[in-house]
Amino acid sequence: MAVTMKDIAERAQVSRPVVCAVLGGKSTCRVSEEKRRRILELVKELNFQPNLQAQRLRSGKTRTVGILFASFRDRIIGDVMMELYRRLLQSGYTSIIAIWENTEEIEQAYRNVVRNKVDGIITCDYHPEWIGEKIPVVVYSRQFPETDSITIDYGAAFSEALEYLTALGHHRFGYIGCSSDDRHDAFAAAYRRCGLSGTYCVYHGLGYPESGILGIRHFLRQENPPSAIFCHNDSVALAAMAEAQRMGLKIGSDLSIIGLDNTLESSFSFPALTTIDTFIAEKAGKMVDLLLARLENPEKPPVSMVLKSKLIIRDSCGPAKSGATT
Fold first, then answer.
1. What is the pTM of this model?
2. Neighbouring residues of 261: CB distance < 8 A, sequence distance ≥ 6
């Protein structure tokens, strides 16, 4: 026979509303730390499984959150979504995940999620016109005045990376990625801030591996190619690094490459990829915290959080070859 809240309450010598309060139900009960600890011990010991359907009927909520992001071909998306899924599950929420490969698919992704009556949405692409009703939204990587959001400050890490590379003798830089997004804007600002002379080369591409391959081919056809290349993300950087090696270059000697996001693969690639850490687990946790706080208090002012990034130095960068021109 399934264990009930009443069973937990009797074993813990408390009332059922106290158990409900500890397990996240709606209750104004104040619970001592000792009682809370005992209830949680019993939940684990007796393998208590809450009746989610009953909880939803009582609260009028589905305890479901929509997670809407772009393609898994950008590796950081998979890592972020997995962390979001885990954090929500730990908080008693199930997730409905929707992705898209191109802009034409975004509307359908939204509609698939909204029709499931989700309590809230976490997304990297905010479209209030497709929500149709007031559903709390947390936006990743962009700020909107009416929603909670998480953005990343890339500036200090880009500046540190440029200073690191110039100290290694690099003076001609390349950038592979979208030239009209926040990452490139932060790189451009850091480039100016570091007082570097001349311009840097840009290959415009999306955050997918093929951009790294095509970008490397583009740069190496130039008469005076860059000696150090920044990439939109690790997926692009790892593909660029592999293509450069196929073309006979030695990474860290003939060419230096820096990625962005510090995904798992970056640490065990060959050579290990120098990258900028955006703290995947931390930012996923912050997004879930913002959404749960909004569900608890829908009327509080919107919160915009800015998280730091950090340069992670590995083996894909090395001294510029002597005789390289600026």
1. 0.79
2. 75, 76, 79, 233, 234, 275, 276, 277, 278, 280
